[in-house]
Write a structure and sequence with these properties.
There is one protein chain. By secondary structure, the protein is an alpha/beta fold. Helix 6 packs across helix 7 and helix 8 packs antiparallel against helix 9. Bound molecules: adenosine monophosphate. Adenosine monophosphate binds next to helix 2 and strand 5.
Length: 282
Amino acid sequence: MLVETTRSGVRRALDAARAERKRIAFVPTMGYLHEGHLSLVDHARRVGDVVVMSIFVNPLQFGPTEDFARYPRDFDRDAALAGARGVDLIFAPSAEEMYDAGQPKVTLVAPQWARRLEGEFRPGHFEGVLTVVAKLFNIVQPAVAVFGQKDFQQFVLIRRMCTDLDFPIRIDVAPTIREPDGLAMSSRNVYLSAEQRHSALLISQSLRAAVDQYARGQRDPGVLQATARGVMQQDAALTVQYVELVDPHTLETPTEASNESVIAAAATVGTTRLIDNMILGR
Ligand code: AMP
């Protein structure tokens, strides 16, 4: 496995693959890898000939009061896990390499319809995400990029960016990988104490409760949202930021829930912010 830290190094390393018309499959991450990230690598290997992973904690997508400085990082561990799983090239740039002149002057703007859910609680977040992903796409120039359902609003926006700005890149989505008890895997789970982890479990349980209620015939988005919120409110250690049932294409709340609808939630436990979502019909 190759490790590149510069943009020019990545381009050079991938020139040969491109000349041989190999399909490059790309998995962007912020590192501190877990089974969720590695499942994206498995998917990338199935759909591509060369698998590229980026590991970059992107300062642009963190708000001033968020966890950029303490975000967990362990490059050696990540490299071992990625190599064992079949990643061919890791791109791990520094912030100076990615943003040579400091704060970039031209950035992408997330559309108005993204300013809810994550967009409402993390102002500037999607601008940072779209800008870094556009840069990474231009550096790696993959045929396909793989994202996780866990960050559902993110892949919806990135897919839309590719359509609207003519990136010739297919966006694939892979299912959320969970701990055996249902907690969605996240690099941020390491912040949780044993007690907090117990509280955090209510997030997936609340979404599951709404999915089960839907399976039993409930179609009213308001009722399904209230069910999920009610489960999370059982634990005072959990502060709910939002619970929303949305259409996966428009991100708007439909008048009636359907199999495709996504119920998404964000909550904080102590100083840790966690998100999760489920598709009702699955
Ligand atoms: P991150 O490193 O958190 O920015 O995540 C990098 C990629 O991994 C994103 O496409 C995430 O959606 C995906 N991802 C994170 N957690 C999970 C999970 N539990 N299951 C599946 N994909 C995930």
